[in-house]
Amino acid sequence: MAKQGNNDKMGKIVSLCKRRGYVFPSSEIYGGIASCWDYGPLGVELKRNIKERWWKAMTLSRDDIEGLDCSIIMHPRVWEASGHVEGFTDPLVDCKKCKQRFREDEVKDKCPDCGGELTEVRRFNLMFKTHMGPVVEEANLVYLRPETAQGIYVNFSNVQATSRQKIPFGIAQIGKSFRNEITPGNFIFRTREFEQMEMQYFVRPEEAPEWLEKWKEERMKWYKELGIKEDNLRFHQHTEEELPHYAAKAYDVQYKFPFGWQELEGIHNRTDYDLKRHIQHSGKDLSYFETGSEERFVPYIIETSAGVDRTLLMCLVDAYDEEENRVVLRLSPRLAPYKAGIFPLVKRDGMPEVAREIAKELRSHFRVFYDDETGSVGRRYRRQDEAGTPYGITVDSQTLKDDTVTLRDRDDMSQIRVKIDDLVGKIGELIG
Ligand code: ATP
């Protein structure tokens, strides 16, 4: 199989996702719905593995970060205070001829599709609106959150008081966010409903620059530990024009997608902007009293804000590989949905029974896949290569004599013989 161009690569990944059960078009039997996607059996496992690794790195393995899970619908005044009602807008233009809609910053003077004339710029608020309760009226207008961060800010004092954390400390949250994007696209890269993994770290104002640098390093380390190729990762520092109004300094972690270098995560010094705005709008005191220095101050916030779906897409893109006779998804074994496929060489002579027994034993340690479909074991290997399963275990006639199986490595297809009793230890060691 020849290596293909970049657009082709995205097309191939989309079709692999469908074929192997990673991602399906949403509501497909009704013709699908624009830029909405459903995670299938393998997709949901990969997504969970990504979120679990993030949660572990950001909360479980640290004593300075607490978790939180806020409601998606919040008091509408939250979004006034945050600036979203007024300022969370994109500049929208329409083509007068073909009616296609664009973000103004993505086009020049003419419609890129048909060369038609464009309308004047209109500001379009990206927040999804709905109404709370049975009557549709202005008074019960609410929004679906466009970011998880605000839930953290408004709970700053609750979390600090109950956890008894002292500054510096952080609050982490994983959850769905919604943005009525004008130009969603590139598969799951930009959608209107997506999941974020956000952590807000509260610090003394003068320590904010130092913590920004620390979090920058921590977060890059996390991506590398997912097994992502270093050459495909970089930082981009926001220029003056790019800098959000609330931030003093900001970086993006970017990945080299087939459609160019794109943001995976924002790491921002948000100053005391958010807490001060909520103090003003709610009238509640969200300042912090530091024992020792006996000082009261409004903390600065260093934010790390990543997208689950984008991270997942990055993992798939980075792992996708084509060889002469196979497509292989070289996912890090730690992330792979199934850790091993288990195959009886033939469907007789007691091999399926032994293989099933192995699958049962392994299942209490790892997620595994049992496959006794008739047909060559080679075909069954290929299917798991494409699904990203790092190890293959085959029960053959020798197994019946000496209780060993072949353990095949997805990446180099090498095979070793391992005692059945040693499988759990060996696979555990290989996964690391
Ligand atoms: P972009 O410039 O790509 O629209 P942003 O700068 O608006 O992103 P942030 O507000 O910083 O994004 O959101 C933090 C993270 O949330 C992003 O880095 C991304 O991973 C994720 N994210 C934001 N919008 C979307 C979306 N529409 N679809 C999928 N993920 C998203």
Main features:
Rossmann fold; 28% strand; binds adenosine-5'-triphosphate; seven-stranded mixed β-sheet; 2 domains; alpha+beta; BirA Bifunctional Protein, domain 2; 432 residues; five-stranded mixed β-sheet
Description:
- It is a single chain.
- This protein is of the alpha+beta class and 432 residues long.
- It folds into two domains: 6-76 and 134-318, Bira Bifunctional Protein, Domain 2 (BirA Bifunctional Protein, domain 2); 338-431, Rossmann fold, CATH 3.40.50.
- The chain has 13 helices and 23 strands.
- The protein has a seven-stranded mixed beta sheet with strand order 3-9-10-16-13-12-11, with helices on both faces. Strands 20-19-21-22-23 form a five-stranded mixed beta sheet, with helices on both faces.
- The longest helix has 20 residues, at 41-60.
- The structure holds adenosine-5'-triphosphate (ATP).
- Adenosine-5'-triphosphate is lined by residues 147, 179, 181, 190-191, 194, 196, 263-266, 305-307, 309-310.
What's the topology here?
Blueprint: H1 6-20, E1 23-25, E2 37-39, H2 41-60, E3 65-67, H3 76-81, H4 84-87, E4 89-94, E5 101-103, E6 122-125, E7 128-131, E8 141-144, H5 149-154, H6 156-163, E9 169-178, E10 193-203, H7 208-225, E11 233-237, E12 249-257, E13 260-271, H8 273-282, E14 288-290, E15 295-297, E16 300-307, H9 308-319, E17 320-322, E18 327-329, E19 340-344, H10 351-363, E20 368-370, H11 377-387, E21 391-395, H12 397-402, E22 404-409, E23 415-419, H13 423-431
Parallel strand pairs: 3-9, 19-20, 19-21
Antiparallel strand pairs: 1-2, 4-5, 4-6, 7-8, 9-10, 10-16, 11-12, 12-13, 13-16, 14-15, 17-18, 21-22, 22-23
The chain binds adenosine-5'-triphosphate (ATP).
Residues 147, 179, 181, 190-191, 194, 196, 263-266, 305-307, 309-310 line the site of adenosine-5'-triphosphate.
